[in-house]
Every structure is written in C-alpha cells, then in structure tokens.
C-alpha cells in the first residue's frame, strides 16, 4: 500500500506544473496590476501627465508667433521634442526610480517568493509604460492642437513614422530604465542619479533648442543616445518634408534612427538579464 503513495503525489506535482500560468499570462496580469498601482499614486500621475503639457504651454506662449528660418512655427517644432522627452521620462526615468524604490522597500524581494519570473515582471513594466505613455501623448497632442493650432501628422505615412518611433522609443526607454535601476545604491538616491542624465540629454538632443543650431560637439554626444533620434523621428512625423533640409544631415535619417533605437532596446534587454536583482546590493 505504501509503495503506491508516490504516484498520487507525482500526479499532483505534474498537475500543478500544467496549471502554472504562462509568462505571457503573468505579464498581462502584471501590466494590469502596474496600471492600478500607478493610478493610485496621485503625485506620479500628476507629474507624468502635467509635465509635458506645462512645458508645451510655456514654450508655446514664450515663442508664440515665432517661426524657424524655413517658416515652420516653433510650437510645431517643439512639440516633436516634448513628445520624445515625455516618453523618456515615463519609461526610463520613472521606471529607474520606481524599481529602485521597490527594491529598497522589499517589494521585489516579496515578488521573488511568488511564481513571477523576472521576464513577466519586466514585460509587465513594458506594457504599463506603453499604456501610460500613449495616454500622455494623446493628452499632449490635444493641448497642442487646441491651444496652439499645431497640426497633427498629415497622412498615414506620417502616422506610421510616429507609431514606429513611439513604440521603439518606449521599448528602449523601458528596458534601459529597468537596467538603470540597478545603478543607485538605494531608492533614496535614485532620483539624484537618474534625473540629471535625462535633463542634460534634453538640452543636447534638440528638445528645448533647434538641434541644428547646437554646437557640433553637443550633437556628436547626442547622437549616441536614443533621445536625439526619438526627437528627430517625431519631427519627421509632425513637420513638413521641406523641414528635413534644416537637419544637420539634410534628411530625417529614419532608417538610422530606427537602428539606433533598436540597438539600444537590445542593449537594454541584455543589461536587464545581467544586472536585474530582486534585492538591493549592500553598501
């Protein structure tokens, strides 16, 4: 009688293995949970949605009526950069800070004891950032159109450019944010470590200024990082084709930009695999 007891136990083990949710299902559940947690953080919600809108309103008012040498209204030029920087803030900066905080307060350590693989956790972050960033962009475009008369992308081709840059930029920013969360030694220092980098990149990547008017060495630095290519790709979506002549290269360089963003997305994924930790490192 005792010899037959392992069989039911083995059957229960096999049954539980078969019933274990897939990584994709866990990722969907994590996305839903991440969105719920984000909505409960009112200060984060206000910052994510208000920052790009406030910047658009301020710069639109300061440069109201001013045009670039090619005749493009500055508000239209600036919208492309602020859409790109909004995506970077939502994906890279906010995630790097938030995950460092979750590691500090033990949230990740508790998740490690649950059947949630690291891949599902990261994919849940990607899904939630895509949703939040899309909502942020919709709000920003509405404000730019209604308050400053900025036209939306003219046709299907320009919308396709917008979608491609948005998806690749969000993906790259998210995985890089997850990887960067391992750099701060504590959640308290995360903002001080990450925010200055993003701020500097905004200035050298053509977000606050016309990119072609920046010094050559600044442009050389910016070309290494994703934000420059995201801003340029967004200009290709929002500006007329004639505006490409004002770019330093004389074209939108959409193929090069896509390759750079894809390379950063792949590099960020590899960094996640190597650096992601459930617990904070000791000082």
Written account of the structure:
This protein has one domain. The chain has 283 residues and is mainly α. 72% of the residues lie in helices and 0% in strands. It is elongated. Residues 13-17 have low confidence and may be disordered. It is built from 11 helices and no strands. The protein has helices at residues 6-19, 23-40, 42-62, 74-104, 107-112, 118-148, 156-180, 190-204, 216-222, 226-238, 254-275.
The overall pLDDT average reads 86
Sheet of most strands: none
Helix percent reads over 70%
Per DSSP, the total helix count is 11
Number of strands: 0
> What is the string of SSEs from the N terminus onward?
HHHHHHHHHHH
Oligomer: single chain
- Overall shape: elongated
What structural category do the secondary elements indicate?
mainly alpha
Which band does the percent of strand residues land in?
A: under 5%
The tally of domains stands at 1
- Tell me the radius of gyration: 22 Å
Unreliable segments (pLDDT under 50, ≥5 consecutive)?
A: 13-17
Give the N-to-C terminal Cα separation.
Answer: 56 Å
Short synopsis of the structure:
The chain is mostly helical. It is about 70% helix and about 0% strand.
